[in-house]
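Re: the request from the purification team.
They wanted to know what the chain is likely to look like in 3D before they choose a buffer screen. I agreed to run a prediction and write the result into the notebook, where they can find it.
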Amino acid sequence: MANGICVFAENYNGNLEAVVAELVSAANLIKKTTREKIKALLVAKDCEKIIEQVKQLGIDEIYAVKTETDCSFQDDAVSHVIAEMIKKIEPSSVLIPATTMSRSLFSRVAAKLECGLTADCTELKVDKREDGSFYIKQNKPSFGENIFVTIVTKEGYYPQMMTVRPGVYTEVEKIENSNTEVHYLDDIVMPESKIKFIEALPLANNTDSILSADIVVVGGRGAESEENFELLKKVADKLGAAIGGTRPLADTGFIPFEHQIGQTGYTIRPRICISLGVSGAIQHTEGIKDTKLFIAINKNEEAPIFNISDYGIVGDMKEVLECILEL
């Protein structure tokens, strides 16, 4: 019978991706109800190094397949390995980072296992059936990001697989010593990939700047002019803040997609957030969590952003920014 909460330990260049610690937090919440063990799935050349990083997350068990060569981007071969691992472990659920790499990889895994895969979840909740079995309600935005939907894997089909957006769960606290059991699945061999990895180039834009920033200045439709956006950048520079924005600001090219905040972008947890010309639609505000100080500036006193901000200024964004720069 399917049992256990699996977390995919995405890694690159011998290091565990930070988003894995967020998935462990989500798995811990599920475990409180289901009492299942949390198990990590790891496929890598540098298994030993990454295993030590995974242990710090308080995982119950680690299942690893050590590859002879670096298997980055070789989705055809790695997906075969992961599918075979899941068949052996028989987990009830698999939590996957909603990253470019894992999305590409697990779409293949789902096809091989003939099971469902829910994409871009922003919330996971556990419920119980009449027979006493547990299942996961996989919540996510849908229909043009305008509404939330709950997706449930068909009863009797396992594992329940879902990708979870980075940033929606906080990272689990690391521990020094753990009793994690490590299992090497040496009988699973990675087949030869038909994909040849030639070169990796750095991203032109750094998403980490908004994900790790203490202060974020966020622009909305009110910043959609060269003059206003230039003022926004000057204020951000003065405050030492990162710049984020709503979807319209990304669509018009004022900010890269990697700095878009909300249901269709990234989730941020800054100490201070300053919203400029942002109306406050839920599609955007769902991407701002645990802010200690939230300041909103909008010329519309009825703007929904004032319902969630700590302090609000009703006024023209341009005039307010010019005043700030004069301080």
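For the purification team: The mean pLDDT is 91.
Please add any questions underneath this entry.
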